[in-house]
Amino acid sequence: MHPAPSVILFTTFSGLGFGLLAWLGLGYPAVTGLTAFVFFTIAYVCAVGGLMASAFHLGRPERALKAFTQWRTSWLSREAVMSVAALLVMGVYAIGTIFFATALSLVGVLGAVLCLLTVFTTSMIYTQLKTVPRWHSPLTPVMFLAMAVAGGALLAGQTTAAVILLLLAGGALVATWVHGDGAFARSGTTLATATGLGSIGTPRAFEPPHTGTNYLLREFVFVVGRKHGMKLRIIAFVLAIALPVILLLVPFSHWLALVAVLSHVAGVLVARWLFFAQAEHVVGLYYGKR
């Protein structure tokens, strides 16, 4: 079993897209005309492409519009509302900069805030899950926001800010790994507590509850070896953080900047794969996977 590619693409590219849109909304870089068109095209392709990938991850993609109706209680619904609001507001700002060489500052700031709120609501879809102790931490939204803002700065060509923010994002990424590794044990959840049979002995799973697979097994129950996981973490950190920072610190070149962006994207994809592959849902106890 492996994490669904659609959810990995969604969390990676929507974060990058909304991160870039946030920087553009704040006026960085201050571009107009054709140059603005190129920047906004990249941002919208990433953001909308990521959201489309999330729609395919739904059990019934044809019912995606219903995701907007439960905003009072559902973080998924809030994400849908925020993403559309952000895209519409930033669309107005983009029209001003592209066709009229006019930056509507208040509209841009509002759009930037909505973009960051979109990333936050995405992170809360996972943070809210008490059944996944590794995700159920304030570090999860911090990591999502840090990666989005840093990636956005990189795409926006804000070299100095990108170096600083990439280092901070790297710190947040490592912190989520270190904290997450002990989260399941700290939660105190075992087969005994899950079944309530701990008072009469130490229960163990005699055999799996069924021979086939199901949604939870496909989405949340993975076993990643410690050595394999560590290698992937190193790859993710080097590609997403270390290499882009090094490339940004050497004398500027558009080709090196392109390599830095591609390296960052590849690293974030690996990090997101690990985020889902190492989820450790407590339901794994029921199937003898924990």
From TrEMBL:
- Name the keywords, alphabetized: Membrane, Transmembrane, Transmembrane helix
- Tell me the domain of life: Bacteria
From its record, what is one biological process in GO terms? Answer: anaerobic electron transport chain
Q: Sorted alphabetically, which Pfam families does this protein's record hold? A: DmsC (PF04976)
Indicate the transmembrane segments per the record. Answer: 7-28, 34-59, 80-100, 106-126, 138-155, 161-178, 232-249, 255-275
Q: Does the keyword Transmembrane apply?
A: yes
Give the GO molecular function terms.
dimethyl sulfoxide reductase activity
- What is the protein name for this chain? Dibenzothiophene desulfurase
| Organism encoding this protein | Pseudosulfitobacter pseudonitzschiae
